[in-house]
Design goal:
binds cytidine-5'-diphosphate, Ribosomal Protein S5, domain 2, 264 residues, 5-stranded mixed sheet, PNPase/RNase_PH_dom_sf, 4-stranded antiparallel sheet, alpha+beta, 11 strands
Length: 264
C-alpha cells in the first residue's frame, strides 16, 4: 500500500474502493468478542477480544475499604488498575507500571465511577483490575468495555453499562476504531471514548492531534452511532451467561437460546 514519492513514503489509509489498510470500511469496527465470568476467583469478570487486543477484567467488591483512611463514609471508592503484560507489545514492556498505565488507570476508574451507584456502599472499595494480554491500539476502550461487563457480572448496581469506542482520523479520513498503523499516521487524531449508551453521557474522552470543528462534530456522531454495537455485544454476553443460569442450568441450551435471540 506504500507508494514512494521522491524520498517520502506516503500511505493510502483509505483506498479508492473505500477500504482501509486492514480491509475495513472507514466506519467499520474490528471484530469484537465478549465473554462473561471467566475468572472463578473474582466476584465478577470478563474477557474481551477487540481485533488483536485481548483484555481480561476482574472485579472484587464492594468490600471493606482498606486501608481505612482511603474509605469514604458517603460512598464506595473505585480502584482501577490497567496493566499491560510484558508480552503484549512488540518491544517487551517493563513489567513495572509506567506513567501511561497510571494515567489510564486514573481516568478509567473515574469513568467507571460515573456509572456505579457508589452511594449505596459507603466505606467500601470496588477493585477493578484489567490486564492487557495483547494489543494493537484501542486497549483502554477495550479495557473499559470489559470492566463494565465484569462489574455487572459482580452484581454491582449501575445506572448504565460503560461502552468504549475509538474514533479519529488518518490520511485525511475520519475513521472508527483506529488500529496501530492508523494511530501512527502523520496527521493522526485518536479519540478514545467511553459512553453510557442509554444516558448518552460521555465518561471518558481523550484527544491526540488536531481536527476541524466539522470533523470533530462528525467524529462524535460516528462515536455515538457505533458505540451502540459495542453495547449490544456487552448485553448479549451478559444475557448468555445469566439466561443460562436463570434457566435450567443447561449451559448449551441457554447459550443456543441467547444466540437465537429468544432470551430477553
Ligand atoms: O491502546 P490505547 O490506544 O488505548 O493506548 P495508546 O497509548 O494510544 O497506545 C496505542 C498502542 O501502542 C497500544 O495499544 C499498544 O499496541 C502500543 N504500545 C506499545 O507498543 N508499547 C507501549 N509501551 C505502549 C503502547
Amino acid at each position: 500500500m506504500a507508494k514512494k514519492t521522491g524520498s517520502e513514503e506516503t500511505v493510502t489509509y483509505v483506498d479508492k474502493s473505500g477500504k482501509r489498510l486492514d480491509g475495513r470500511k472507514a466506519d467499520e469496527l474490528r471484530k469484537i468478542k465478549v465473554e462473561v465470568g471467566v475468572i472463578p476467583r473474582a466476584d465478577g469478570s470478563a474477557y474481551v477480544e477487540w481485533g488483536q487486543n485481548k483484555v481480561l477484567a476482574s472485579v472484587y467488591g464492594p468490600r471493606e475499604c482498606l486501608p481505612k483512611h482511603l474509605a469514604n463514609p458517603y460512598k464506595a471508592i473505585v480502584r482501577y488498575t490497567y496493566r499491560m503484560a510484558a508480552f503484549s507489545v512488540p518491544d517487551r514492556k517493563n513489567p513495572k507500571p509506567g506513567r501511561r498505565e497510571i494515567e489510564i488507570s486514573k481516568v478509567s476508574g473515574e469513568a467507571l465511577a460515573r456509572a456505579i451507584f457508589l452511594e449505596r456502599f459507603p466505606n467500601t472499595a470496588i477493585d477493578v483490575d484489567v490486564e492487557i494480554l495483547d494489543s494493537n491500539a484501542g486497549t483502554r476502550v477495550a479495557a473499559l468495555t470489559a470492566a463494565s461487563v465484569a462489574l455487572a457480572d459482580a452484581g454491582i448496581p449501575m445506572r448504565d453499562l460503560v461502552a468504549g469506542i475509538g474514533v479519529g482520523k488518518a490520511g485525511g479520513h475520519l475513521l472508527v476504531d483506529l488500529n496501530k498503523a492508523e494511530e501512527d499516521a502523520p496527521d493522526a487524531v485518536d479519540i478514545p471514548m467511553a459512553i453510557l449508551p442509554n444516558l448518552g453521557e460521555v465518561v471518558l474522552l481523550q484527544l491526540d492531534g488536531l481536527m476541524t470543528q466539522k470533523e470533530w462534530e462528525e467524529s462524535q456522531k460516528l462515536a455515538f452511532q457505533h458505540v451502540k454495537k459495542v453495547y449490544e455485544l456487552q448485553k448479549e454476553a451478559l444475557k448468555k451467561k445469566y439466561a443460562v443460569e436463570g434457566n435450567s442450568g443447561d449451559m448449551e441450551a441457554g447459550a443456543r437460546a441467547a444466540e437465537e435471540g429468544v432470551v430477553e
